[in-house]
Write a structure and sequence with these properties.
Layout lengths: L8 H15 L5 H10 L8 H19 L11 H16 L3 H14 L9 H10 L4 H23 L6 H15 L3 H8 L8 E5 L5 H9 L6 E2 L4 E2 L7 E5 L6 H8 L16 H4 L5 E5 L6 H13 L1 E2 L8 E2 L3 E7 L2 H6 L5 H7 L2 E4 L3 H7 L3 H14 L4 H14 L9 H15 L7
Parallel strand pairs: 1-8, 1-9, 4-5, 5-8
Antiparallel strand pairs: 2-3, 6-7
Length: 428
């Protein structure tokens, strides 16, 4: 019987840091500690840190290989996952910019999937490292997922304060769970069965947070077509429940059979039918859903089944369900706006979104960052020519300590009003 090798304590510590740098949660204290341990000279998140670690890692892996045909299988089981992550980082690091470019191209292209020009070469590199082709395909999809998570959690959630860093940390965990090794081995195709409830004041950004998570779902790579199975742009299906009433809401969610009711002139596929296995249904303000429909939603959450209006045959829902509720969950439940059974089903993962007032109390400089983000969103560019006057006019009318009752939604309206008529008068 072959004697298996074991890593030294120093190698094990180092590779554990590399594993977290490559695939662990980059937000929060653990991410900061790992970066500090790997390099005390560079700030967290600096790409130069990854470049330096990559160069050093390659040399260390060559030393550990010790003329073995397959590095990973040569070592004892307790060390294989660390070595596996190290090999993945070694192979995939140089492709990170290509993946980031692919994300930008997919955003421009929308629902039409993009060709992955570098996919075949990257798969070949992974298989040459000793991975089975099926394993290489799996990790190509996972790496694309982690790059999207880093992109969307950084670029769509603006702010440097502690509450925003905590929010990014919690959203990452809702994508990959708290332990990436558990996710990649057991939950990558099951995490969609775990529902999420976002709570916070109206206008605080619950929909934005939900969209960021949904854009980061696991999407398999199709080798034959050299594309991912679906555009992540299609993965988010928001439903504003307040705009529907009665059977219209049930139809919008579950669909209906022809002649199920007077207005049902044709068969109709609702949101749950249209959602792909990689997609997410987001119910905006679930407290507006009538109790009878809330009861029907419990079946979706608990069993991933639903029944179209006027039909007797239950259908499978293969996507993920998220919802939002205004305010704090304790008051929502005490006021009877959400069925307890639905809350316990949805609340597997409850994420609180901080108010704008709280965010600016933590870090007042976030106001300028948010204004820059809003201007870029509406004009397509960053312009000091616009930023200066907007900030100046805002400070003329919105004083220090303003409560921001409308949160981010109010801030957007202020910026647009200043762009249009050059002033805004607050009501505080």
């Amino acid at each position: 019987m072959r004697t298996l090798l074991t890593l030294s304590d120093a190698d094990r510590r180092y590779l554990a840091h590399v594993s977290h740098l490559a695939f662990g949660n980059p937000f929060g204290e653990t991410g900061r500690s790992v970066r500090k341990a790997l390099s005390k000279e560079m700030s967290p998140g600096d790409d130069a840190l990854c470049d330096r670690v990559h160069a050093h890692l390659h040399d260390r892996l060559e030393r550990l290989k010790q003329k073995q045909d397959n590095l990973i299988s040569a070592y004892a089981e307790q060390d294989r996952l660390l070595l596996h992550h190290a090999v993945l980082f070694d192979c995939l690091h140089n492709a990170r910019k290509a993946f980031d470019t692919l994300i930008a191209e997919q955003l421009q292209k929308g629902g039409q999937v993009c060709k992955v020009a570098f996919g075949t070469n990257l798969l070949d590199l992974l298989t040459r490292s000793g991975m089975a082709r099926s394993v290489a395909l799996h990790y190509l999809a996972i790496y694309y997922q982690t790059r999207r998570a880093r992109y969307f959690l950084k670029t769509t959630l603006i702010g440097h304060g502690a509450s925003m860093e905590r929010l990014r940390h919690d959203l990452w965990n809702s994508i990959f769970t708290y332990d990436f090794s558990i996710y990649e081995r057991f939950l990558w195709d099951r995490v969609r069965e775990l529902s999420t409830l976002f709570v916070g004041a109206n206008g605080s950004g619950k929909k934005t947070a939900a969209a960021a998570v949904s854009y980061c779902s696991y999407i398999p790579y199709i080798e034959k077509s050299e594309t991912f199975a679906e555009s992540f742009v299609n993965c988010f299906i928001p439903v504003k429940v307040a705009q529907y009433s009665g059977l219209q809401l049930e139809s919008a969610l579950f669909g209906h059979k022809k002649m199920a009711y007077a207005e049902a002139l044709e068969n109709y596929q609702g949101a749950f039918s249209r959602c792909s296995p990689f997609g997410t249904i987001f119910l905006n303000n679930i407290c507006e859903v009538p109790f009878p429909v809330q009861a029907r939603l419990e079946e979706v959450v608990q069993e991933h089944l639903f029944t179209p209006v006027g039909d007797q045959i239950r259908q499978n829902f293969s996507g993920r369900l998220m919802a939002s509720a205004p305010g704090k969950i304790a008051s929502i439940r005490s006021e009877g706006r959400l069925r307890d059974t639905l809350y316990f089903s949805l609340g597997v993962n409850t994420i609180s979104i901080p108010s704008l007032q709280h965010r600016l109390q933590e870090d007042p400089s976030d106001l300028e960052l948010l204004i820059v983000h809003i201007l870029r969103k509406y004009t397509g560019q960053s312009s000091a020519q616009l930023l200066g006057p907007v900030i100046e006019r805002m400070h003329e009318h919105v004083g220090v300590g303003y409560a921001w009752p409308g949160n981010l939604l109010e801030l957007e309206q202020i910026v647009k009003r200043i762009l249009m008529v050059s002033h805004y008068e607050s009501k505080n």
